[in-house]
Amino acid sequence: MSGKAGERAMYRILELLRQTDAFVSGEEIGRQLSVSRAAVWKGIRKLRQEGYEIEAVTNRGYRLISPETMYNRQELETGMKTRYMGHPIYFYAETDSTNNRIRQLAVEGAAEGTLAVAEVQTMGRGRRGKQWSSPVGSGAWFSLLLRPDIPPAEASVLTLLGGLAVCRALEDISGMQPVIKWPNDILLNGKKLVGILTEMDCEMSQVHFVVLGIGINVNTKAFPPELEEVATSLFLESGKTFSRKLVVQKTMERLEEYYDIFLAAGGFAPLLDEYRRRCVTLGREVTVLEEKSFLATALDVTPEGELLVRRSDTGEEMVIYSGEVSIRGGV
Ligand code: BTN
């Protein structure tokens, strides 16, 4: 069987095994897929090489054990309920940054909703030129391509929309209640759980595409000393392990839901109240990290996604467009 045909057979075997907790005999698999017993055996061997745990018992056949722990394109596609977010999926065992992959795919004409997921990023990027630690096996590192038909000035709310969707998805999955630090950091018990890096390609009046890069600390058991005080994971806050596949799929579902609302309304207004409820920055004293940092009270978030603050020194109200604020007594 050729490489491609072999791969197709392998995934059809996987589908078949996935449908039941019981053993399925090699003969039965061969009959259902119209392939030889030898091809079935080859397929099983390939699946094992991919990391699937398959039990084999003489006279009973094969049984798939815990597919939930698998994290690859095939697994991510299975059970993805969205119409366009997360279609198609590119999965990288290792890449420099999924934002780079999506940027490249976008330039080549990829469709809105295209998703790049990596097991490991060797040069994961954070905001303000920082690195984003993206080790193997513990986190969900992925980037999504959006092609909104809007002027660049309106694109910054997509950053807020991304934060809102991820926050909601993680609440759905974990039952815990993460909060948003404006514009789109997600915190749990005061520590950073998710970082989002939004990058845009545009001309004066038109956005070409937006890359929404999302890093979620899912099952991280320990952080390097310099991050220990400020970073956390779903595992560290709950003692439970979560399926990264589910994390990515739920995030795609919520992103599609909120992005559809944004497109239908032509703006962020219908999502603003939920954002305000989840935004822990509001009402707090913050340090606005501009060229000359200053203290202020965060008053509100505007429909354009800016943060309205009152300066502590002059009492002047002003809007902060982007960039960083740090909450006093927090991250
Ligand atoms: C931040 O500084 O808070 C933003 C971190 C964003 C990290 C994600 S991981 C997936 C995507 N690829 C990257 O290189 N960065 C983003």
Short description:
The model has no long low-confidence stretch (mean pLDDT 93). This protein has 331 residues and is an alpha+beta fold. It has helices spanning 3-18, 26-33, 37-50, 73-77, 98-107, 157-174, 225-228, 234-238, 244-265, 269-278; strands spanning 53-57, 61-65, 89-95, 115-121, 139-146, 179-181, 185-188, 191-202, 207-217, 285-289, 294-301, 307-311, 317-320, 324-327.
Ions, cofactors, ligands: which are bound?
A: biotin
3D shape: elongated
Q: What is the number of beta strands?
A: 14
What gyration radius follows from the Cα positions, in whole Å?
23 Å
- How many helical stretches? 10
For the largest beta-sheet, the strand count, sense and barrel status come to: 7 strands, mixed
Order of helices and strands: HHHEEHEHEEHEEEEHHHHEEEEE
Termini separation comes to: 56 Å
Q: Give the oligomer, counting copies of the same chain as homo and different chains as hetero.
A: single chain
> Could you name the ranges where pLDDT drops below 50 across 5 or more consecutive residues?
none
Residues in helices, as a percent range: 25-40%
The overall pLDDT average reads 93
State which percent range the strand residues make up.
25-35%
Order of strands across the main sheet = 3-4-5-9-8-7-6
**What class, by secondary structure content?**
alpha+beta
